[in-house]
Amino acid sequence: MSSRRMSAAVGLLLLTTGCSLFGGDGEDVPEIRREQTFASAAPRRVADAGPAPGIMREAWRIRGLGQEEQARYIRLEGGQLFIVGADGFDVHDAGTGRKRWHYREPGRELSGFAVNKDNLVIASRSQQGHHLTGLAAGTGRLRWERGGDEGTPFIRGHGNGLAMGEGVVPLLVRGEPTSGDEEEQPDEFLAIDAATGEERWRRPHHGPGCETGTRSAATDTDGSVLVFSESCGDDHYVYAFNPSDGKPLWSRTGTSEDSLVGISVRSGATLIELDEHTRTLVGRDDREIARLNGTGECLSPCSLLRVGDDLGLRHFDESRNVVMSLIDVSNGKVRTLTTPHDITSVTAGGRWYGVSSGLAGTLLPAGLNIVDMATQQLTTVPVPLNLESQGGSLRWLGVAGDHLLVDTSEGDDLIAYASTPARGPLELGGVAKDDWPDACDLLKDVPGKTIARTPMVEGPVKIGEQELARSRCHVDYSDDGDSGQAIAEVEWVSASPAEADGLVDGEPGLYGADEVQKTGESSVRVRKGRFVVEVQSRLSEDLQPIVAGVLASLG
C-alpha cells in the first residue's frame, strides 16, 4: 500500500497515548484524546514573491472558516495555512489551498502553537492540566508529549503565538517560596527541545522582585533570539537570550507610564517601544541599530515588517499621513515612504500590499494598493470582492508565493487571488474607459414622464491615472405636478459577466436583471452582464420603471 493510500486509510485516529517523554521528576503525563489525520510528505515551499501589479482573479478558495464568534483565525507557516479553532486546526497547502492534515484535542483548549522548520509545538489546557505536544510540522505525525505544569509557556495574545527560537520552547518556572532565613529561590527559564520534548537547558532568572509585575515574551520569525520582558509599575526590563543555549545576549531598562512595553522582533533585531515617542531597535549583538523616537503613533499592532533587506515600521507622521520608516539594519539609516491609509497590509518580495474597502469614491470593488519599495511606485488595482456588503473590513491578509490571500470579517471563505497581465488600464481591471456607459444616458428614458428633465453629473472619479467623468447622474423630472428624481451610478464594469457576478449578492430575475440587490427603501443595485449600476428614486413607486429604463439602455 502506498504511503498516500495508507494515509487515507488511517483517516480519523483517536489517540490516547504517544511517544511520551515525562516532564519533571517522573511527572505523569495526562492522557490526551486526539483526532488527527496525516500528510504523506512535507509541504512544497512557496517563495516570498507576492503578486505583481495586474488583473486580480480568483485562483482558489478554502470554504467554511466560520463567522463572527465561530470564526477561526489563520496562520501562515512554512508553506502551510493553519486554520485554527478552539481545540485544534486544519492544515492546508499555502500554494494550492488543498487540505493536507488536521489535528484536534477534543475537550481541551488550544492555548498556543509555534512552528520552526519541521518542528511544531502545541500548548493546550483543560481542568486536567496543561500539556505540550510535539508534531512533525509537515505531516502532523506525533513525536512527543509532555505534562505542561512544570513551567508556563509564553503565549502572545494575538493569534495564540507560542514563543519558540532555534528549535526550543522556553518555559518560565516560578521559584519555590521560602521561609525563615533561607535564600529565596529564583525563577528559572526552562527550554524544551521542540524536536524531542527533552530539556535542552535551564538558567536562573533574578527578576526585579515586584509583586504585581507583568511578563511577556516574543520570538522573531527566524528564531534567532528570544526576548523576554517584565514590568514593575512604570519600570520596564527587557532581556534577550540565545535560544540554543540560554546565554544572555543583552538587556535594556526604561521608564514609561504605559503598563506594558511593546516588543517586535524580526531577523534578529528587536524593536522596543516604551511609548509612541520612545522606540529603539537593538541588534542580536547588543548593537543599537537605530533610535526611532518621535516617529509618531504606530498603526496597531506596532510591529516590524520585513521589506527586502530592510525592516519597516508603519506609523503616522505629524500631519497624520500614514508612512513607513524603512531601516537599513547594516548602518541604521532610516528613510520614509508615504503609503496609503490601509489598516490591513502585508509585505512580500520587496512590495507592500494594502487592501481598502473601496477602490475610489463609491466604486464597488475593494482596492489593492501595491507599493514597490525600491522605486516607490504606487499601483492601485481592483480586487473582485465587495467589502461594503461584508462589513467593510478584512479579517486577515497574507501572501503565499504569487497569490494574495484574503479573508473578510463577515465572510466564510479564504480566497486566493492571482495576478494576470492586462491589455487595458490596470486601475479598471483591464476594461477600457470607453466601455463604461455614460450614467446620464442610462436615464434618458424615464417612462411616463412628459415634462423636460434636467441632468446633473457628479464627478469625476479618479483612480490612479484613470478618470471617469460621468459615472453618476441625477435627473429631476415632473409629471402632472408631481416632482421626482432618478439617480443612476455606474459602480463597476467588469471584463466578463462572471467577474461582475462575484460583486453582487442579489436575487436573480427581478426587473429583468441578472441580479438585483436592495440597498435602501427606494434604491437597488442591479447587474446586467458585466455592468453593475445602483439606481435610486425619490418616489418608491417609480423605481421599477426607472430600473427598466436603465436595463434597456444597457442593451
TrEMBL record:
One short Pfam family name for this protein? PQQ_2
Q: What positions does the domain Pyrrolo-quinoline quinone repeat occupy? A: 185-264
Which keywords does UniProt give here? Signal
Please name the Gene3D superfamilies in this protein's record: YVTN repeat-like/Quinoprotein amine dehydrogenase
Q: Could you tell me the superkingdom of the organism this chain comes from? A: Bacteria
Residues annotated as signal peptide: 1-23
Q: Name it.
A: Pyrrolo-quinoline quinone repeat domain-containing protein
Give the organism, scientific name: Nonomuraea longispora
